[in-house]
Amino acid sequence: MTRYLIAGAAGMLGQDLQKALAGRDVTALARADLDVTDRDAVLAAVAGHDAVINASAYTKVDDAETHEDDAYAINALGTENLAVAAARHGARFVTVSTDYVFDGHATTPYAEDTPRDPINAYGRTKAAGEELALAAHPDGTYVVRTAWLYGAGGANFAKTMVKLAGSHETVSVVDDQLGQPTWTGDLAAQIVALLDADAPAGVYHGTNAGETSWYGFARAVFAQAGLDPERVKPTDSATFVRPAPRPSYSVLGHDGWTRAGLAPMRPWQDALAAAAAEGLFAE
Length: 283
Known about the structure:
Layout: E1 3-7, H1 12-20, E2 25-29, H2 39-46, E3 51-54, H3 68-89, E4 92-98, H4 121-136, E5 141-146, E6 149-150, H5 157-165, E7 171-174, E8 178-179, E9 182-183, H6 184-196, E10 202-205, E11 212-213, H7 214-224, E12 232-235, H8 255-259, H9 268-277
Parallel strand pairs: 1-2, 1-3, 3-4, 4-5, 5-10, 6-9, 7-12
Antiparallel strand pairs: 8-11
């Protein structure tokens, strides 16, 4: 029986990974249980496991601009520690990365082998984590890039929109950034399918299919939550200047799944409907 270790198990994706692995032999470690920056602790924790899934991350994108060392410790060195431990103990290693490893200047979906070119500190630390993991455990590392995550187990854009609807008649959302809203429930299931299939190591893009803007996503969220989508108004990024620049185009291509003989993830609209049906907005 495969023995799984989840690092970052208390996060939004970590919680859904635990659900996706229900009934299996799983060690679920939250940040308080395992400091991924402590290599000795990581080596000890990974011992006895066959598959390691890294859902831990420093995700405060704007804070990373002024705390890049802190982000690097978790996103790069922590990821490397897990990869080194997985290699030493003969385990396969999945690490979750991000669309932010790209510059966002493309006009067609980013292929898995597109050169990394991050435009903010968070993206640099995640890109470094990918490179270090693939170097440390080249035959057993799966980099699964994702984007625009939402789920029941944490704060996220979809929940924020519904919360704002309770206190604002209209909500302004940027319409000039394109990406792929991705449900953590679907991503968790895809990661488990990847491991179950014993697919080739390498880079995969774990996002729901299709594309939309944050504005389009917000309208869909309102509709699924039983709210009037007309209350969502379009604006542009210039009205929401933040410390870290955001990629304007974050659509990821999914050819890696086909090459591995696996189906890509379903359209984002279908995933959102399923998430809503499972209580995404039930607070």
